[in-house]
Amino acid sequence: MQPISPRVVELLNEALTFELTVTNAYFLNARMLDNWGLPRLGKVFYDLSIGEMKDADAYIQRILMFDGHPNVQRLGHIQVGETPEEMLRLALESEVSAVRLFNSAASECHALGDNATALVFEESAREEEEHADWFESQLDAIRATGVQNYLAQQVDVSVNPA
Ligand SMILES: [Fe+2]
Ligand SMILES: [Fe+2]
Questions:
Q1: Per-domain residue ranges of the chain
Q2: Top-level CATH class of 6-152?
Q3: Which of 68, 53, 50, 67 is CA-nearest to residue 16?
Q4: I need a labelling partner for 131 at 20 to 30 A (CA). Which of 15, 64, 101, 102 fits?
């Protein structure tokens, strides 16, 4: 079916770009954390990466439903922290900017009269708020316990190389 306006497909593609970018960033963060011997935090980034990939899939499907072209070539700047703390800070920043992006896309869709797509963006905004909140809590925990204590909790010697 045709979208109410071609702008709707542009907005969906912007959302797709965000989801693909964080999928890659979180996946790389996960494997770097594993490599640093911090597999518990690595697992969280891994699971988040898979979640963001599923978000990307949903946007691809919606763009195709509107007979649009999903742009999987375009990626945003992939920010990789040099320390676990920086990874958490950068992830928080990107989730906060996603909430802003999705809220403004939802408003535009409402203004265009596409309430269903607006709802999709609103649901994304809510989900990314939860991610932002989780990253914020980790940074709070680091402030409260000290980074070394926090990182000691991310070690898991039961994750063996076999
Ligand atoms: Fe997402
Ligand atoms: Fe997210």
A1: 6-152
A2: mainly alpha
A3: 53
A4: 64
Distance (Å) from CA 121 to ligand 2 centroid: 13
Cα separation, 107 vs 98, in Å, equals: 14
Ligand nearest to the CA of 124: 1
Give pLDDT tens digits along the chain (162 positions): 999 999 999 999 999 999 999 999 999 999 999 999 999 999 999 999 999 999 999 999 999 999 999 999 999 999 889 999 999 999 999 999 999 999 999 999 999 999 999 999 999 999 999 999 999 999 999 999 999 999 999 999 887 766
Q: Using the mean position of ligand 1's atoms as its centre, give its distance from the Cα of residue 51 in Å.
A: 7
Q: Of the ligands numbered here, which is closest to the C-alpha atom of 53?
A: 1
Report how far ligand 1's centroid is from the alpha carbon of 141 (Å): 24
Long-range contacts of 7-11 (CB under 8 A, 24+ apart): 7/108, 7/112, 8/66, 8/109, 8/112, 8/114, 8/117, 9/63, 9/66, 9/68, 9/69, 11/105, 11/108, 11/109, 11/117, 11/121
Q: How far does CA 62 lie from the centroid of its chain?
A: 18
Compute the distance from residue 54 Cα to the ligand 1 centre, in Å: 8
